[in-house]
Amino acid sequence: MAHFGLTASPAAAPPAGRPAPPAAPDGFGTQTPGALHPAGGPARAGSEPFRPAHVTGAEEELRPPSTAGGGGGVGAMRVWTLLLLGALRLDGAPARNVLLLLADDGGFESGAYNNSAIRTPNLDALARRGLLFQNAFTSVSSCSPSRASVLTGLPQHQNGMYGLHQGVHHFNSFDAVRSLPGLLRQANIRTGIIGKKHVGPEAVYPFDFAYTEENSSVLQVGRNITRIKVLVRRFLQSQDVRPFFLYVAFHDPHRCGHSQPQYGAFCEKFGNGESGMGWIPDWKPQLYRPEDVQVPHFVPDTPAARADLAAQYTTIGRMDQGIGLVLEELQRAGVLNSTLVIYTSDNGIPFPSGRTNLYWSGTAEPLLLSSPEHPGRWGQVSSAFASLLDLTPTILDWFSIPYPSYSIFGTKRVQLTGKSLLPALQSEQPWATAFSSQSHHEATMYYPMRAIQHRQFRLIHNLNYKMPFPIDQDFYVSPTFQDLLNRTRAGQPTHWNKTLHQYYYRDRWELFDCSQDPTESHNLASDPRYAAIFQMLRAQLLKWQWDTGDPWVCAPNAVLEEKLSPQCQPLHNEL
């Protein structure tokens, strides 16, 4: 496959004995049975292949009217002319568009972030055509809460998505939340999502064009890059000429040992052409040897963890090739040079101290911004702090759409605490602070934490610090964690920078100087030499909690009583 900007050769037909990937159970919704489309996805019986969900007959109204007879042609032509004008800015330039590319549990496994052990030519090319952020952070290290925060600009405790959305967890954002796709729709921006949605309710997160786990197999729309390519082409070939926001949410490189173990620990075998694995025509699998991977400092350096990372690398390679295909479709449609392209991930990688943690290793994210209007920043690296809470303000700013004034509960107006990142595309910015907030992952994993990173210092407040830190089902069955458990029980070296006991049981406050202690191993919260820094960060974190209406703002040693003064009433619970 060619890198984006070049023409990819058409995919060959599957060799004999290599069926397209099956619509396997994915754990995120019902399966889509039926015949397999040549691109590898299931075609719904009795319908046109790839017809987008949630599109009604209104789509037909966007097509140019016929000039041959029939009344009402003048009115229809007037509507069509207005739509064509809407595709141009006031200065006559092509309308601005946005493409948001999201990895699922992705990290810094790319050449762009100086990992020389993995091949990611398309991400590397995107970095050369954009600005790379060194200090980007998610606001929550959990899938659904992070995606909801990306699409609302509000932290999980403010938008209501406290934990995972699917299955028995069933968390949802509050009904009154105003999300990015909803705001864009009101501003006449066309919206589309392909891949893993994992948020709800539908009324809060509406998309005009949707192929997600809600109506397809998440493996097909999230990992089958040929199907993703065809769906992107379908979206771009629509007669709807409005500016667009397209959100491609890959399911790679998420683990799948808990849900689809037949495809490998990371679904690295899905679509590789082996017997029973199906075949993805556009994917050229890249295999890695465990001894060649780069082991992050927070991951045990063991054969089991290295094999896990090698499998993860293969799925990152599939996503990277998918990103190249998506960008080629934008160029083919003639819109790449009018589209802001954003690449990031939802949370940390699914390894110890990664996903579900508010340590640097659980919240630091890759972030690339590629703007066709800012070539002066192409290939540059920014040390300015960015948060995934900044993406909604950035996209609204790109489209020149103001954020509305409204309330979720009562009369308190919602205020975005994120910022537009567009000024960083002009010049380096002094931003140096990012906040994080976590309450759940799975429904049973209640371990609320709040955190602030300011320059090199990170302060974490573990509200339920007397409880052991919970482990999610997906991570528990992983080869890395099972090996860690076995080594701990047998008293063998774990080759990790902490013990399981230290991982489970944490201090209420954790303060780290990441410039001197990049592994976050030395808690400075009780060190009198850092008392002033501790108090400053604690005050900033508390102010952010009040500004964002955090229901946990008084926890764990007080209860919030909004009609009393002070609002935090003490519990005298010896904390």
Strand pairing plus helix content: what structural class?
Answer: alpha/beta
Query: How many beta strands in the DSSP annotation?
Result: 15
Radius of gyration: 24 Å
Average per-residue pLDDT, rounded, comes to 87
The number of helical segments is 14
What is the first-to-last residue Cα distance? 59 Å
Question: Per DSSP, what share of the residues sits in E-state strands of 2 or more residues?
Answer: 5-15%
Structure description:
The chain has helices spanning 73-86, 121-128, 143-152, 156-159, 180-186, 218-222, 225-236, 303-332, 360-363, 391-398, 473-476, 479-490, 500-504, 531-547; strands at residues 97-103, 131-137, 190-195, 209-212, 244-249, 339-345, 364-365, 367-370, 380-387, 433-438, 449-454, 457-462, 509-513, 558-560, 568-570. With 575 residues, the protein is α/β, with parallel strands linked by helices. β14 and β15 (568-570) form a beta hairpin. α7 (225-236) runs parallel beside α8 (303-332) and α8 (303-332) packs antiparallel against α12 (479-490). Mean pLDDT is 87; it is low at 1-86.
Task: Describe the structure in brief.
The protein has 575 residues and is of the alpha/beta class. It has 14 helices and 15 strands. The protein starts with 72 loop residues before the first helix and ends in a 5-residue tail after the last strand.
